[in-house]
Amino acid sequence: MDIDRPADLTAALQALEQVPDATLLAGGTDLMVEVNFGHRRPEHIIALRRVEELAELNGTIGSGVTWARLEGGPYKALAQAARTVGSPQIRAAGTIGGNLGTASPAGDGLPFLAALDATIELRSASRARRLPIDEFITGVKRTAIEPGELIHSVILPEEIPERQEFGKVGMRNAMVISTVMACVMRYDDGRTRVALGSVATTPLRARRAEEMISAQATPSEADLTEFQRLVSEEVRPITDHRSTESYRRHASGVLARRLLERCLS
Q1: CA–CA separation, 153 vs 60, rounded Å?
Q2: Domain boundaries of the chain, sorted by first residue
Q3: Distance of CA 134 to CAs 57, 117, 144, 155, 202, Å?
Q4: What pLDDT band is residue 37 in, cutting at 50, 70 and 90?
Q5: How far is it, in rounded angstroms, from Cα 77 to Cα 263?
Q6: Which phi and psi angles does 227 have, rounded to 5°?
Q7: Could you tell me the pTM of the whole model?
Q8: pLDDT of 232 higher than 90
Q9: Domain 163-264 has CATH 3.30.390.50
Q10: What's the chain's average pLDDT?
């Protein structure tokens, strides 16, 4: 196994240009599990931990920003999500770029990014390009990253509502892969965003529920019940070893409603 340890972004992109299909290593919290179980045998690794340009958190979120830093970051719902990621040791190593690159339906940071229609910036030695998150994540553990590219950063919109909440449901309270997770945001003008994870092949926006509740300046109990129903209808869950389709569908509506009620309180 060959390992490159570039000290800056230019060196990292040059190394990737030489070996476009190299395996990129940041925190390694997902990659090393696959290696340890024999699911992957990378021949060439480019380690990115020393690349400071990828760790910037100043209006954009560098792909190398760790969950530990996001716990105390400026984005409330993302901080809430960060606190649910593994153990303190995992949060100190794992990065938001790894969450994006792995593209698991259960990626804890993805509902927050989907709710804001975040943009993902990709870099190679020859170009930079930006993709909306719904074009970047194309399926279960599939992305639009091309050979020779790495995730540079996450670009958030200028307008981010103060009222935002994240929550997840799992088989225990801590260090758990979610059964259902959701992020709800409410703007001052009533616009509401609802994004869910672990209930479809990619992060899912509950568009009909958003449209209905956004039209209500002061949602009534009946409005909240309808919102819950629409969220439950819009998700596309499966039955697997962690939960059933019917439970995920029910929990999606309940969780989204509770998060909305927190935003409204």
Answers
A1: 7
A2: 163-264
A3: 22, 8, 10, 14, 8
A4: confident
A5: 11
A6: -55, -45
A7: 0.94
A8: yes
A9: yes
A10: 95
